[in-house]
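hey can u check if this looks right to u? its 317 residues, i copy pasted from the old doc so theres a chance i mangled smth
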Amino acid sequence: MNDGIPAGMIAVYDSLLICWSPYLDSFFNIINLDTGKEIGSFCEKGQGARDAISVNCIFQFFRKENELCTFLWDYSQSRLFLWNISQSIEKGMTVYDTIVPYDKNRYFFLFYHPEDTLFVNRPADILSLEEVTTPFYEKRTVRTKEVIRDYRIYKEASLRKADVSDLELSFYTWDVMKPDGSKIAQAMRHLPQINILDTHTGNVVGYRMRNGPDFSFLKKDADIKLMNVYYNHIQADNNRIYAIYWGKEAWSGRMGEELPLFNRIHVFDWSGKQLYELITDRSFFRAWLDQVRNRLYAIDPNTDEVYYLDLDEITPG
């Protein structure tokens, strides 16, 4: 299926295919998967009171009063939008339940927690030519921006080195919150490792592939851009974690060049145990796990074709 689907990132909930693209007049297009017809475009770009200059792709769905919602953050205008997707579809226009001012700190992931709070990822940040912070999570209130608690992923809050210009890339992860809000899983790009953060206790445990490289590379003069890429993306439900594995040198990423085939998916439980590996015949460069139909969706970055893996039909050997 690919008619009318723009390039970018996708999220799926039951029959709804939601496509995020930074290149169109609105940030999101919604398509009915059952009919293939476009429902509408939402979250308009601009500088008006209800417009945004830039917003994240969808990291998480949740329900408020039984309506499908997600949070969007507009860094440029320091605002946080609670997008009511259900009402937007019903009314044929973008509906935000709330728009609140938010500070301009660097955030990457924002996850809504059942306690009406947000878990926000603070990525590595260069403080000077010789010092870089390590990533951590903050638990914050939605409306007052109060920081309730920090969750340190690494023992050291910052690292020092003669030149840290590339060091922030060493800690890059793609993250996902367990739907019940109890844990966050991180798939590391430059190590064959996933981290699992317990949102109740703050404990973090890393699970690294046996005989794989470790953090000793941080003490060397390794060129991060030349290092292998291990995990590229991650999705999860309350039982399983699905991490897209590459395990080779980085691809070029140049405009116009086809991306290679990403067809290995490592499946973990929430205790960090790898259960099995899926080998697919289609590429899963980015993925989205629809928990309603139990399907793992992907969009082919070379063709914009959308397809899925039916997880109910998988019987590991």
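The helical segments are 85-91.
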